[in-house]
Amino acid sequence: MPHTVTLIPGDGVGPELAQAARRVIDASGVAIEWEVQAAGLAVMEKEGTPLPERVLESVRRNKVALKGPITTPRGGGFRSVNVALRKALDLYACLRPCKLYPGVRTRFDKVDLVVVRENTEDLYAGVEFEAGSAEAKQIISLAAGKIREDAAISLKPISAFASERIVDFAFRYAVANGRRKVTAVAKDNIMKATDGLFYRTAREVAKRYEGQVEYDEWLVDAMCMQLVQKPELYDVLVMPNLYGDILSDLCAGLVGGLGVAPGANIGKEVAVFEAIHGSAPKYAGLNKVNPTALILSGVLMLRHLGETAAADRAERAVAAVIAEGKHVTYDMKPDRNDPTAVGTQEMADGIIANL
Ligand code: NAD
User: Fold this and answer.
1) Which of 129, 147, 184, 270 would you call most buried, defined as having the most Cβ atoms within 10 angstroms of its Cβ?
2) Which atom of ligand 1 is nearest the CA belonging to 80?
């Protein structure tokens, strides 16, 4: 039986990357029926919303989607489709594996980290009060001289419920993928209430996995230094939303940058696989950018679907092309103006030839 998967090509460089990823996944030997659903800028013009209900319905029905990036216009325009999608489908876990493939130019020999980021609360909950608003004044009055009168306020909710489910997700991921250690990252020396709750919850969850997976804790600032000095000491990292956003970009940088960093947003029933990077509008339609991040997101999707052999084959083919360094896009060459760099589809062709 083929798997039915929703394919959201997105906008900007999304459609060309989606085409490249789709071709590689199809060539890995797995049978997938793609249900293509347009979303993003062009859809906004035609249908009045960048994320029509039909897209959500398709993802809910198929339970799995591969998604290209979607532009969020700055200042005004529509709210982020990416955030709306994660909210509507309660995709509470953001998974970002950062693995160094030989041939990628970086400062490190070995990096194989997985960042698990909580996706639904923290400073991303969107509970914000403008300076001078009645709500801001009310909170200031409760804070006994700790907040200036002219302050704007963003709230940082951290719940036991969301902390438990994200840390448990990290441990389940560790067990299922033969990982040895989960590190919880926050800053409870300063945020005793919120980050304190996160760590206390994490310790409780860790007890359930004692003897199977190690557990340790780092403060987020110290963790940043550890990661740029000794990334090989760490394995699965779990953290609240904002720290996760920042550290996953840091970790992507350790393994060669945005062009090679895959990701997934996972909920109880539904999972959406997408690269970390955005729609890179200035490169749209140029057949120029690196398809690796979306292809590796597709590899994560194959693993999620239980298609381990096809996932292994596709990942080996990607690794072989990177190691050879010939059929790679401009960002993987020593010099960005290297005339031997190939285009998006040609890199996909090179990967397919290795399958
Ligand atoms: P971006 O990731 O789109 O691009 C930044 C730069 O990174 C590019 O100019 C390019 O030099 C490089 N880059 C990105 N992807 C690459 C690839 N595959 N290969 C080679 N180089 C690559 O970030 P941005 O410019 O900040 O955002 C552009 C738009 O994308 C914004 O509207 C933003 O909101 C949106 N965005 C969407 C998502 C998503 O869909 N999940 C994620 C991030 C940003």
Assistant:
1) 184
2) 34
